[in-house]
Amino acid sequence: MATADAIPIEFPRRQPGRLTPPAEYAGLRSQEGLVKSSLPGGSTVWLVTRHEDVRSVLTDPRISSNPLHEGFPSMGKNGTVPPPDQVPGWFVAYDPPEHGRFRKALIPEFTVRRIKEMQPAIQRIVDRLIDALLDGGNSADLVAQFALPVPSLVICELLGVPYSDHEYFESRTRVLVTFTSTDEQRESAAKELITYLTKLISIKHKFPGNDLISGLLKNETLTAQEVSGIALLLLIAGHETTANNIALGVVMLLLNREWIGDPRAVEEALRYLSVADRVALRVAVEDVEIGGQLIKAGEGIVPLGAAANHDENAFERADQFDPGRPARHHVAFGYGVHQCLGQHLVRAEMGTAYRTLFERIPTLRLAVPPEELPFKDEGILFGLHELPVTW
Amino acid sequence: MRINADADRCVGAGQCVLAAPDLFDQDDDGTVTVLTEPGAATKDAAREAVHLCPSGAITLEDG
Ligand code: HEM
Ligand code: SF4
């Protein structure tokens, strides 16, 4: 078992060109207690890798999501996320009971039923993008031309961004998640989006519609500033995560063609890929024991979703892509009170994207050998920079 | 078997509705509501919902 003064290991990295999580995870899961690791951003944290322990971390009231607490893990600068203490309404960083005020205001917009109502809009968005792919010839980059615009246009729909502004909105959010954007470009895109959202909110104030922002503005417990913070959170939380899952899921299906057309591939792709492996950061605010390890108040914790989702004790033959397995207890969306609010929306987007893509372009195939795909091995989120395909 | 669902604890994740659509629904406010008590055919689905619920809002009383 690790002692408090053991030398921290390097933060596990993905192996270039591989779709499976970092190889070190298996060893960490079978080791007693937990292990300390130093983060790219410099701080030292406890890594949690077993499925059961990850769930414990994410449900323990002595463990906080608030980055203002001393010892909260810092992943370094990643460009896309504004400092939470500067954005009122950035509720992923709040603990209960404050967190509940925002969560309760939003859950009516994300119920299984509400997402079903959005299905025709999602289908329309996916169909139009595929029309454009087919009009453009017989090859494409599915990241830029499909996986990124789907979630961005769906969020426009959800927030009530008028159709005429979709292109502007999409181009600004694109800058935020594009690898080659400079810090200045990201910063100015974020500012433009905040300005845009503020303007949109004041318009919705006067002319409410049947959209999420109008709904939130009717809620008297939220200020207009908080509504804009929430809108920004939804935009950022739901964009690159979903895009990466759509693109990588297409790769999984192209490499395992026997599962094309099976709707269960969505849940298994979420588990297998676990793109948000290192997204849920935490800090202990009291001493707490997790997985046989004492974690002291003020120590940072990184529960690793991909490690938990490849734990053989929770999923047999975990490194195998098998949509036939029961996979719903995966933690790709986290667990506990912060479990992803957008999860049913994601399922609808992924399901619609895969079904329609392979129905309309049955001859779809990779344009490069799989090992040459440009994976995002270094980022916080796992994904692809590009997905060259042909048909 | 009886289901207790605590709407105050519920975070509207909807796992219960996916796992056991015959037993659970989400209210207009998004929180859990029990449609009917589990019968012989739906007991396993009820247990699955308890296991999947991320906030511990659902408990079962055996009987
Ligand atoms: C495949 C796509 C997605 C993945 C893998 C994902 C993953 C996650 C994870 C792991 C968390 C928990 C963070 C934590 O515990 O600290 C989370 C929270 C959240 N997600 Fe997602 N997400 C996805 C898409 C979306 C979408 C489409 C939306 C909304 C439009 C969204 C909105 C949110 C929000 C608002 C939270 C915070 C919830 C809270 O704090 O109560 N996500 N997501
Ligand atoms: S699974 Fe739990 S948290 Fe989610 S809606 Fe059902 S009761 Fe509420």
UniProtKB/TrEMBL annotation, chain A:
Gene3D superfamilies: Cytochrome P450. Residues 1-21 are annotated as: Disordered. It comes from the Bacteria. Keywords: Heme, Iron, Metal-binding, Monooxygenase, Oxidoreductase. One of its GO terms (molecular function) is monooxygenase activity. Belongs to the cytochrome P450 family. This is Cytochrome P450. It comes from Streptomyces bingchenggensis (strain BCW-1). The gene is cyp11.
UniProtKB/TrEMBL annotation, chain B:
It holds the Pfam family Fer4_13. Keywords: 3Fe-4S, Electron transport, Iron, Iron-sulfur, Metal-binding, Transport. Ferredoxins are iron-sulfur proteins that transfer electrons in a wide variety of metabolic reactions. It comes from Streptomyces bingchenggensis (strain BCW-1). It comes from the Bacteria. Its cofactor is [3Fe-4S] cluster. Residues 1-29 form the 4Fe-4S ferredoxin-type domain. Gene3D superfamilies: 3.30.70.20. The keyword Calcium does not apply. PROSITE patterns: 4FE4S_FER_2. This is Ferredoxin. InterPro entries: 3Fe4S_ferredoxin, 4Fe4S_Fe-S-bd, Fe-S_cluster_ET.
